[in-house]
Amino acid sequence: MAAGPCPMRARTLTVVMALLCALPTLARANGSPVTLYADQIHGIGSGHWTATGHVEVLYGDRKLYADSAHYDQNSDEIIAQGHVHLVSPGLVTNAPKAKLKVRANQGIVFAPRYELPSQDGHGHALQGQELGKGRYRLNEACYTTCHGRIPAWQLWSQQLDLNQNDQYIATRNTTLDVFGLPVLWLPYLNFPLARHSGFLPPTLGSSTINGLTLGVPYYFDIASNLDDTLTVEGLSKRGVLLQNQFRYLEPRYSGTLLLDLLPNDKLTDSTVWAISWQHQQNLGDGLQLNVNLNRVSYRNFLADLAGVTQFNGGYLGGVGNAPYLTSTATISYGSNNLNAGVALQDYQELAQGGSAPYAQLPYVYANGYWRLADSGYFDWRSNFNYFYASTGPIGQRLDLTPTLGWKWSRAWGFLEPQARLYYSHYQIQRNGPSYARSINRSLPALSLKGGLNFVRFGSDGSSIVLQPLFKYLYIPLQAQNQIPLFDTSQPFQNFPSIFTDNSLYDGSDRINAANQLAYGFQGTGYTASSRQLWSAAIGQIQYFNSKQINLAGDIVSQNARSNYFWQAQYAPLPTLNLLASSETNADWKHLERMDFRAQWLAPHGTVLNLDYRYTHGFVHQTGVSAAVPIGRQWRFLGSYQYDLQNDKPLEQLLGIGYDGGCWTAQFVVFHQILLGGQTNNAVYLEIVLRGLTSIGNSRGFLDQYVPGASMEF
Length: 713
What we know:
2% helix; 62% strand; 46 strands; 14-stranded antiparallel beta sheet; 2 helices; lipopolysaccharide transport protein A fold; mainly beta
């Protein structure tokens, strides 16, 4: 240790002189100097010194405080007594007595009380040992993150090993106490303080289809960019489900692979399996690879195992209501003016009696956009598809859609003429008598779109923007009943869609005829702080052509006017939002469609949703959902969705959560009607012991039933 001035403290001059003499006799801790402060020091220069009164010893990255300390240079041991306070990285210990070996980073602490500040963990023990740098062993020890005379939960262990190097705690002969009562005994328990291989919390649940469920996951920390989780899940009515999730992350690619296997399933009398693989990769030079593969062994996999398996797909309204699964693999290229790619897209039908879309094997596309002069542009859309299905016609389709346009814009309005060509070529196999072997279709489209902007400013700083809009569109009428329906359907129209060219159809197999004028009016109001207060829009199409093609491709009559389409939004408060969209017939005599939601997002996590959904002859539903905190510790979550058309509930969910500071609990009871009329009743429980583990099966998917809400505290 290099001699030199010591940091000044509030000591007498005699003590300061003694320190200057004593420093060269002290040991070094792994090459670092040992610094001593005390009110009195005896035995300087003898190899044995005793310090008393406000003793402070600094060595390496450690600090020792005590009433008195004795040092033996031969054994390199410090014996500290009286209000011993040890501070090391990530650990603070208080004890009446400690014996420490400076160079070896070893020692014994008697009756310690310890803290792990970064985890808010703490406890006490009969005796503690430092086995080496960052490694400690506590005998007859307890551990908790709770405070109070009787902690909400606490571990009592015959032996507790703390490894700060690998960031984990391992215990033997351990009892978990809940509010002072022993509830669980474990011969061995290992839990991480950071990411680390070991058992994860078990999952608990119950449902009508699967019975009682208990899952035990094990986490493999393979590398900083690789991990794997294997879960053994017992289903009392079905057997043992094995789930494996492998994740990887590299600078240029990342992904997740999920495999599920249920051998000898009692419900289906077969081996049940599922696979899901998501992969994203940057190939360089603007090239990207994306893979999304999803397959299950039988139709009801998602409906039966929702909430048990991690294979969910994130479908709103419950994973069991997915009509089909989609799998895609795409290589794409993107630049400033061009994007192109090759994709394989396939579907697995899940809904009984349903029909999944055609597979596209492959789908090739090349699209571009270029500016011409100041206001002109050229847009190019092209794609080639090979459509395949097990039944019905299959074939190839080439679509070319060039567009030449010009947009003239000023502050008070805009005008945009446009010329477009729809060209499609089909080669049909399994064509039967309905379709020709080779089909060509060319349809030009001419349009003129425009609008005006009217702005009014209020004296209070608010503003209103009003915009009348129009679009004239001409597309010649052509029967298309010799073209199969590969990817085309009739979507619900809305206000924005009436200003598009092919507004009646999705996909390219049908191009609607048009000699029409779409017109509408939209407005937006802003507060003085520029917050959007309201918006509203209404529009309609006036048809000058009395004929149109239907989805079958036949020429049929059409009305002189379309239905009215309107939408509105009103937010009188930043926390309150009203949304509505509707479609009424041209004579305003009846409602074709209505969607309404009132949402209140109050401070502190309060959420209230009121919903109404109506589509003539198809859907008539209403619902209410809410998440309400009750005080600082309780939270209520509920959802009730009702089918007015069939006079029965569709979904009922009731949950309650409690936050005890060092622990939280969530309990949810759930009933849902799935596609095909199948019902599922389930109970989910999640208990989180903060700083230790979580026990439960909420899986985080419950939040979708109360939009804007979370059961997280």
